[in-house]
């Protein structure tokens, strides 16, 4: 509603609450169905907050869950959000059981891919080229990408504090003629501004 994409913020599934992130991920009947199927004990009400960051903080820092459980929680939350977006674009509403099965298959595929990518020999450490800003300041890194086949372009922004912690991340599709973007990119990389 803030971005004037929708006129009504009532959850289209349960029709009981505003479809804020916390509702979509934890308290909507659709979310509760998925969490019950998952056998992962995530209860936003028990944790005392409904933000994704709050729940993850509780699980990781207070309860000390292992990486495997944290990965399951993140992936199930992602499938819930993804399915919500699919429904918004006239896709099919999937059951909680199907979403959890999809999340677990996705995690298994990821695990196999990571095992295949493990280096055979010793890992060579490269020197760090990023230097932090002076104390109390932030550093902003910006990059762009062009996708010729899709005739599209995008930009990414990363903001870090003086300790190297990520403070904000943004990526956006750029609405501009691809030819002009490619020319600007070419001139930039050649050092002509």
Automatic annotation (TrEMBL):
It comes from the Eukaryota. InterPro entries: RNase_H-like_EbsB-rel. PANTHER family: BNAC02G40300D PROTEIN, POLYNUCLEOTIDYL TRANSFERASE, RIBONUCLEASE H-LIKE SUPERFAMILY PROTEIN. This is Reverse transcriptase zinc-binding domain-containing protein. It comes from Lithocarpus litseifolius.
């Amino acid at each position: 509603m803030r971005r004037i994409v929708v006129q009504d913020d009532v959850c289209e599934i349960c029709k009981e609450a505003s479809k804020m992130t916390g509702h979509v991920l934890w308290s909507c009947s659709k979310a509760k169905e998925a969490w019950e199927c998952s056998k992962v004990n995530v209860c936003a009400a028990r944790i005392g907050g409904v933000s994704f960051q709050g729940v993850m903080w509780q699980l990781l820092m207070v309860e000390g869950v292992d990486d495997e459980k944290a990965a399951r929680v993140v992936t199930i939350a992602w499938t819930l959000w993804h399915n919500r977006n699919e429904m918004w674009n006239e896709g099919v509403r999937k059951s909680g059981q199907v979403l959890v099965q999809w999340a677990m298959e996705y995690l298994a595929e990821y695990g196999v891919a990571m095992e295949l990518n493990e280096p055979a020999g010793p890992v060579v450490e490269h020197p760090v080229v990023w230097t932090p800003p002076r104390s109390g300041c932030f550093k902003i890194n910006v990059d762009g990408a062009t996708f010729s086949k899709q005739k599209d372009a995008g930009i990414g922004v990363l903001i870090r504090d003086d300790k190297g912690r990520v403070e904000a991340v943004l990526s956006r599709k750029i609405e501009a003629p691809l030819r002009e973007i490619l020319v600007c990119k070419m001139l930039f990389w050649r050092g002509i501004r």
